[in-house]
Amino acid sequence: MKIAVSGKGGVGKTTISSMIVCALRERGRPVLAIDADPNGSLAEALGYDQEKDGRIIPLIERKQLVEERTGSKPGDMGGYFVLNPRTDDFVEKFSVEVNGTRVMVMGGLKEALTGCYCSENALLRSFLRHLMVERDEWVILDMEAGFEHLTRGTAQSVDILLVVVEPGIRSINTAKKITALARQAGIPKLGYIVNKVYDGDQIGDIAALLASDDILAVIPFDAQAIDADLKRGVPYASCPVMAGHINMLLDGLDC
Predict the structure, then answer these.
(1) CA dist., res. 75 & res. 209, Å (int)
(2) Is the pTM of this model over 0.70?
(3) pLDDT higher than threshold 60 for residue 115
């Protein structure tokens, strides 16, 4: 399966993405973890020590690679470049192994909101198409609250979009916008994960604002997740209650 995870910043999207990766790995699934959030820290949530091992260089910052594969120097305006550059060797060359999982950082699209389709964007989108359409591993894509990375062809190859929501109207409104964008992009299935729930009454309020049938998991607020973050721990190992809910979610998805 190809699973994309999105949601407003701060709702626990990366924590949940990392727990899905760990749960699938525990089930013996071959998994690729892809960080497509420019502000993301998926590798760290899986146990990568950035202070000891150094920063993982996002694909979009590999200027020499962009020029080599697209025929255009990053930053050049105008001219021609390859729209579908070769990317099938990127996982083997540029991924980092973190506790048995291959992790890659894509970086944010360059000037995505201006409609720029530069050589860097072409490289990222070609790589994402390779991940979604051509590879046969399980792919977990930790995304920002938008779909600039996805073209219609790659969006239709996503098996499910999981939108993480926390109790709060701003988070819910963002989730609604993400849902509308996902449907326009052609993602075939979506569902909500309601995270950081303090009491049962909140679920009724949230269900009234979202399509309640699409709520796939409800995860209670877990202070252990905060402790794990402060101590640079792996949430899946440090938060057994959350891990249990993630496994129930995957059971429901036949994973």
Answers:
(1) 44
(2) yes
(3) no
Confidence at residue 30, expressed as pLDDT on a 0 to 100 scale: 95
State the residue range of the domain holding 140.
Answer: 2-252
Domain count, the chain: 1
Nearest alpha carbon to residue 140 among 228, 15, 224: 15
Q: Are 179 and 172 in contact (CB under 8 A)?
A: no
Tell me how far CA of residue 252 lies from CA of 216, 230, 255, in angstroms: 8, 31, 8
State the residue for tokens 């995957």: 250
The 3-state secondary structure of the chain, one letter per residue: CEEEEEECCCCCHHHHHHHHHHHHHHCCCCEEEEEECCCCCHHHHCCCCHHHHCCCCCHHHCHHHHHHHHCCCCCCCCCCCCCCCCCCCHHHHHCEEECCEEEEECCCCCCHHHCCCCHHHHHHHHHHHHHHHHCCCEEEEEECCCCCCCCHHHHCCCCEEEEEECCCHHHHHHHHHHHHHHHHHCCCCEEEEEEEECCCHHHHHHHHHCCHHHEEEEEECCHHHHHHHHCCCCHHHHCHHHHHHHHHHHHHCCC
∠201-202-206 over CA atoms, to 5°?
Answer: 125
Looking up residue 226, the CATH number of its domain turns out to be: 3.40.50.300
Radius of gyration for the alpha carbons in the chain, expressed in angstroms and rounded: 18
Q: Which two tokens stand for residue 240?
A: 């057994």
